[in-house]
Structure formats: C-alpha cells, structure tokens
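Components:
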Amino acid sequence: MSTLATNAITDASGGNTTTINGYTPTMSNMAGRNRIINGDMRIDQRNAGASYSQSTSTIYGLDRWSGDIDTGTGRWDVQQVSDAPVGFSNSLKVTITTQESQPTSARHQIFQSIEGYNISDLGFGTANASPITVSFWVKTSVTGIHSLNVSSGNYVYTTSYTVNSADTWEYKTITIPGATAGSWGNTNGVGLFLEFTIGGGTAEVVTANTWRADTTTKIVSGSVYLPATSGATWQITGVQLEAGSVATPFEHRQYGTELQLCQRYYTIFRCGTAYGRLLSVAVGNSSGLIRATVQLPVRMRAAASSVDYGGALYWYNGTASGAVSSVSIDVANDTVIGLNCSTTGASGNQYYMINDYAGNTAYIGINAEL
Amino acid sequence: MYRELRIIGFDGSEQLHIIRTNLNGNYTSFPADPDNTDYQEYLKWLDEGNTPEAADE
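Structure:
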C-alpha cells in the first residue's frame, strides 16, 4: 500500500474533470446529491406493504410519494412490492383496477413534492438556474412513450421516456435545463414537484421539452394512457433528482437516515404487539375527553396539519378501559403535538394510557406533508 | 365521507375538527382551518351539495 498526499487532483489539461474508477466527483454528486427522499421505496410507514386504492383526492402512500387523479374514471391501486432491479429491494407498483379508454381530459400521476429548502441551491427562477438530471428504474407492462413533469405549481417542463420492453426493468435518465423563470419555493413549503404521469387525456398534450407557465402538468404526444389497459402495471424505484447534467449512481442512504428524512413529513406510532402501548401518559380533561402529549421523533417540516388513526384504539386507567372514538389535534408545533382523544367512559382528573386493545391494529399517524 | 367533531380545546375555546373516513376504513382528522388543504377539500365537497354525517360532541 502506498500513500498519496496532495493538495489537488486535476486532469491532464488542468481542469476539474479527473475521474476515479470512471466516476467524476464534483460538489454536486457526492453525499446529499439526491433531492428525492425514499427514492428506493424502502419506507412505507402508512401501509407497511399493503395495497391501497388511489382516489380522486391526493393520497400519500409510500413515504414522500403521493398519487392523484384529476378527472377521468380509470382507477388504480398502489403498493410497495419487493420486485426490484439489482441493487434495490423495493419498488412502487401501480396496478390498473378500473379500465378507461383515453378520454379528452384526465390526469393521473404519481409524484413527490420536494421541500423548497432542498432545491434552493438550484437557482430556479433566476438566470443562474442549474440543469437537473432525473434518473430512475422503471418496469411496466405497457411499452411506449411515458410522460414526466417537473413543476413549481406554476411553471412546468413536460418531457418523456420510452419503455422498450414489457415487464423488464429499464434504467432511464433525463436532463432538464434549469428554469430561469417561474416562482420556486425555497423554504419549508413546496419547492418542486416531480410527477410521473400514469395517464393524460388527449387534450392534455403540449410541446415537449420546453419550460412554460402553467398550473397543471401535461403529457407528450403519443404517451401511454395506462388506465386504458385493465390490469396494466407500472413500477418505479431508484429515483434520483440531482443538480447538473450527469446522472450519477443512485445515492443509497442508511435505512435509519432515510426513515428520519421521511419522519420530517410523516411519523407513525404503532403498538408492535397486541395490547401494546401507543401513548404512555395522558390526562383525562373532562368526561369523554383525554388529552395526550406526544414528543415527535424528528423535528417536523411544520406543525402537523392532520392525524391518521385506526384499529382498536383504547384507553386504560389501571382498572377500566374503553374505546377511543376519534383522535384530533389540540395544539401542535414542529416538535410536540397535543392530541384530543374522544372517548366514552373516561373522566377528568385521572391518568390514562392509550393502547391497542387486541390484534396490534391500533395506530396514530402525524402528518406534516407538503 | 366526513363528519364533524366539536371539542373544547385546552385554551377553553371550541374547536371544530373534520373526520374523514378513508378508503381503507381508517380515519383522518384535521382542524377547520382555512389554510389546511384537507379542510379546503372538505369545503369543496360541501359546495358540491354533500352533507356530513351527524356531528360528534
């Protein structure tokens, strides 16, 4: 073994494109270069791998990934599955459950909203905007052109990728010029949407590969309308969005790190066992109302905006127990949340714990998504 | 489907919360806050002529 001590490594012409094992390290392609969270689809706090149905409302499924249907009658399910290309363990899978021939107007999409803080260095909306490169693995039963959009919500770039072989994992890279106009968030609100189109109507076609002022995402001419085929599938994993014009290898982060990144937006408390405890100490405030205080594991993006709950949620005071009929936000900030647990039977001036009654089904999810 | 929930908050004021039954049979609650996107969607649902289930107290 020998040791190299030097102050700089440059290429033969004096530039900064020296490669190491064929890879050119730059400021933007080392750790932290992937602006997508859970791009390898390992984290699924809400559904733990169970399938769920996409409705016309925006639904968050696998962590940081959501789906939406804007008009159109085609319907689909989403699930975290273990089918993935080499180097990955999971993918996000869409399966068409209600067939619909391509209509005039419809927009189906799977997307991730990237927080403004995480794209503020790109300079979008200025003359110094950096190009970005999106890379991912895709597998679908329907070959052909598939659309993809990058958007601020008011400034959109519509492009596409082509799937050549059915039911085969293919790696795609797309470089997009920096957006020199538009309004782009750079704090804890939405910075940028990355949207994979599942299907768009015939009236949604726009000129590809150019930025435009628009509030909705569109499709490229000739794009696949996945809902047209009953049972059609579309899978994706290894999604990376990075600064620059080069697609670098996917940035694999440790599971704990990735989970903490997800918990900035959503965190779930599950019992882990039948009769397991969810919230250790809660106080009876009045007849039928228990107030619980929860310290959040990660400082969240913002105060929670909603709470998910379900399963056999119960209270217990050492001698008696009863069902919790609803959970709502009393007060919240980005580190602590106070919850109202509405009940029957509980009374004031007593201590309670909130637990699973049986079957390990109870959970409470705290939501501060974009 | 939605239902309304009225609770006296820790500060003594009455809070209005909306409970949504999700497709998986579980629930999501959110405050009646004009800036809350879930609440905005609820208001749109009301504007379409829908009626929530009876309120809980």
